[in-house]
Specification:
With 429 residues, the protein is an alpha+beta fold. It has 11 helices and 13 strands. The protein has helices at 8-20, 38-47, 90-99, 135-147, 162-197, 223-233, 237-251, 296-308, 315-323, 328-335, 415-422, and strands spanning 22-32, 55-58, 68-71, 79-80, 110-116, 122-129, 211-222, 261-268, 280-287, 345-353, 368-377, 390-396, 400-409. Helix 1 packs across helix 10, helix 2 (38-47) packs across helix 4 and helix 5 packs across helix 9. The radius of gyration is 22 Å and the shape is globular.
Length: 429
């Protein structure tokens, strides 16, 4: 595989984005209580093109061809709001920035914004297409830009001419046809297994999950208190956060009929020099939301068992050869198919402790830094409503862990309250 060819996991993200018209986004937020250094932030903006964000995607000229990476030094200007706003307006401003145009093909694939605060502070946010980088990939790009490190990305500066690209991509499709046939057979077996499995893993009727508007909430936890509670209960910080995720799912009714919460773990497998936008393997973990302190050791063992059994490759590596062969409408319907009401999955992803450079985009440490997942429509597209979902993620600094939750479940009208009730023992605010 040539270096500029998208890995199957990235092709899956790209094809899914194009099919649904919906961008998945990584949004990083920094708070500077005494204001951000705009000159330092300008250096950071320019430096971002020297890493994983210094690229875009070039379409294959064939409707069923795989996409390629192309290097770019284009860096959108920093959007600085003209009028300061109070701190209470930060969340609304973050939504505004997440809705600003993002296009990993024609650009920009990311953008940077600053909100001056009326008390003299600043909010800064970086929004990145999930096609370009996942959470750990974004953290890596931010750390490298903040510390001045530059990668020599092995991509051409311009896309191949259409005629040469047609010949090249047609030959690749021909070579991958046997793999596509095997992937189709594996997909058919998986579908049959799911149909046979439906309703057998839980008891009682599956509840309905009506949807409402997209909502999100964040809680910033005292990391020392979280670590102390983890140690005294025989678990880890992640174990306690998995339990909190299960509690959130239970309060929203997003659990199996037998009361178990299904956590879909997005586990990052990024290694040094890894140029994939998304280096993720998925796994499932069953958690009893009623797990008390005495059950943390057993939950930790369950987590260790699940992570120890992770495959080296993710689902896109198995079904990747099919991705570009499916009509967009078919792929969109598969992506937006409603979850099995008897087996609703809460997606969980933890970026973990952020290295010091990630917290210092202008060259000085911010007073708060955290990540969240967001969604927007591709420019010129109207993304259809999402089926029911619940997402829980977290990032950490030396002083605190930030737990982010997003959902469109109708039961999530008071999502902030739901989140805070799930972690009363170690919530800071």
């Amino acid at each position: 595989m040539t270096a500029d060819l998208l890995a199957f996991v990235d092709q899956g993200a790209a094809s899914g984005t194009r099919a649904t018209g919906r961008n998945s986004l990584i949004q990083v937020t920094w708070i500077y209580d005494d204001g951000v250094d705009l000159a330092g932030l300008e250096r950071f903006r320019t430096a971002l093109t020297g890493g994983l964000l210094g690229r875009r995607i070039a379409h294959s000229p064939l409707p069923f061809g795989r996409d390629r990476w192309v290097a770019t030094t284009a860096a959108p200007r920093i959007a600085v709001e003209a009028a300061p706003r109070p701190r209470e307006a930060i969340d609304g401003w973050l939504d505004e920035r997440a809705a600003a145009p993002i296009d990993p093909w024609s650009g920009p694939g990311w953008h940077l914004g600053v909100l001056p605060l009326t008390d003299g502070g600043s909010a800064v946010t970086l929004v990145v297409s999930h096609v370009l980088a996942d959470g750990v990939g974004t953290a890596t790009a931010v750390a490298e830009a903040a510390s001045g490190a530059v990668r020599d990305l092995p991509y051409p500066r311009e896309a191949t001419t259409p005629l040469r690209a047609v010949r090249r991509d047609a030959a690749l499709v021909a070579r991958e046809l046997p793999a596509a046939a095997r992937a189709a057979a594996a997909a058919a077996r998986l579908a049959r297994g799911r149909l046979e499995h439906t309703g057998t893993a839980s008891t009682g009727p599956a509840p309905a999950h009506p949807v409402g508007p997209d909502r999100w909430a964040v809680a910033h936890l005292d990391r020392a208190a979280l670590a102390a509670r983890a140690e005294e209960s025989g678990g880890t910080e992640s174990t306690l956060l998995f339990r909190s995720a299960a509690r959130i799912a239970a309060e929203l009714g997003w659990i199996r009929p037998d009361g178990q919460a299904v956590l879909g773990l997005s586990v990052n497998r990024r290694e040094d020099g890894d140029l994939r936008g998304n280096a993720i393997v998925d796994a499932e973990l069953l958690v009893d939301p009623a797990t008390g302190p005495d059950g943390i050791v057993a939950l930790r063992a369950d987590v260790k068992g699940v992570l120890g059994a992770l495959p080296d490759a993710g689902r896109y590596d198995a079904f990747g050869p099919l991705l570009t062969l499916l009509p967009r409408r078919t792929l969109a319907s598969l992506i937006d198919a409603p979850a099995d009401p008897a087996h609703p999955v809460t997606t969980c992803a933890g970026v973990g402790a952020l290295p010091a450079p990630v917290r210092a985009p202008d060259g000085t440490p911010s007073d708060r830094a955290w990540f969240r997942l967001a969604w927007s429509a591709l420019p010129g597209r109207i993304a259809p409503p999402r089926p029911p979902y619940l997402y829980v993620g977290w990032t950490g600094t030396e002083a605190e862990t930030s737990l982010f939750v997003a959902s469109n479940l109708a039961a999530a009208a008071d999502l902030q309250g739901v989140v805070e009730r799930s972690l009363p023992e170690y919530a800071d605010h």
